[in-house]
Amino acid sequence: MRDTRESRLLLVLLIAVAFALITVDIRGGEDSPVDGARQGAAAVFGPVENGVSSAVDPVGNAVSAIRDSGTRHDRLARMEKENAALKAKLGSDDRNSSRLKQLDKMLKVSAEGQYGIKGGQVIAIGAAQGFSWTITIDIGANDGIKRDMTVLNGDGLVGRVTTVGPDASTVLLANDPDFTVGTRMEGSDELGFASGQGDRPLRVELLNSKADVKKGDRLVTFGSEADKPFVPGVPVGVVSRVDPSGGDLTRTLYVTPYVGFTKLDIVGVVVEAPKQDPRDTVLPKKPKPTPTPTVTVTVTPSANASPDGQTQQQ
């Protein structure tokens, strides 16, 4: 197209329309008028992204072993058996070894929290989805995935499902500025709300402005009504800074998330919530404090010292 006044005007109009659609979509939430179009796009482009990923991925269906679940006890036994078979199949190359470690950690989180999960792989990142912090995963409605399901990995909370196509889904990451989740402090049970801040720590507003909180304290998800969009007990992060309480109704914390949002690969969608709140059981074990070395100084008496400790004169 030639660079003419008409072409520049057309470009400006297209950009304006795009921003208008984004605004309508965000304000519409679940009732967004463009939700149908977004799901249609997921249905069209999801298989393409999935196909490209499978074509270049030596692992292919590496996490298919945990996509189907039966009863709660049978599911865990089946996962362990199929995970062992998966390890033998993948071999020992560095990339596959890393993914097996991720899979192991996620299965451990699932078992400890009694979450029924469907495993998936990240096949696209946010640039394909607009201006949000999002990922696309290779499982969708055909795998039992629905909107507003919790997404986690072996480290903790990843995000929630926002759009579902037949074979792919979009996940809004927990560090997105539009993301909010209810949290509960380990031990004290203080409640709050965590919001994403992009590549900065999560911002948490505690409901109790006088809560006793310190650096190093840990948080998990509080859970939502009917477990959607969030199931309880998923690790969120560690307090890195506490703002002084200035008489406000809430208290502000800054939390370093457990999950590294720039290096996601294997994730799990919670399709079955736990029957009981796992509370703090899914949190990783606290590191043992390093003991402070003790130095003992022994003083040896001089040969010329008298019994009462005085030095004898010659």
Strand numbers in spatial order across the main sheet: 1-2-5-4-3-12
The helix/strand series, from N terminus to C terminus, equals HHHHEEEEEEEEEEEE
DSSP strand count: 12
Helix content: 25-40%
Structural class: alpha+beta
Tell me the strand percentage band: 15-25%
C-alpha Rg, in Å?
A: 26 Å
Distance from first to last alpha carbon: 109 Å
* Chain-averaged pLDDT: 78
How can the largest sheet be summarized?
6 strands, antiparallel, barrel
Q: Stretches where pLDDT falls below 50 for ≥5 residues?
A: 52-56, 58-62
Descriptive report:
It is a single chain. The chain has 314 residues and is α+β, with helices and mostly antiparallel strands. It is 27% helix and 24% strand. It has four helices and twelve strands, in the order H-H-H-H-E-E-E-E-E-E-E-E-E-E-E-E. A hairpin with a 4-residue loop joins strand 4 and strand 5. The chain is globular, with a radius of gyration of 26 Å.
Q: How are the elements arranged and paired?
A:
Elements: H1 5-28, H2 35-56, H3 72-90, H4 94-113, E1 116-125, E2 134-137, E3 150-152, E4 157-164, E5 169-173, E6 180-185, E7 191-197, E8 200-206, E9 218-221, E10 235-242, E11 251-257, E12 266-272
Antiparallel strand pairs: 1-2, 1-12, 2-5, 3-4, 3-12, 4-5, 6-7, 6-9, 7-8, 8-11, 9-10, 10-11
Helix pairs in contact: 3-4
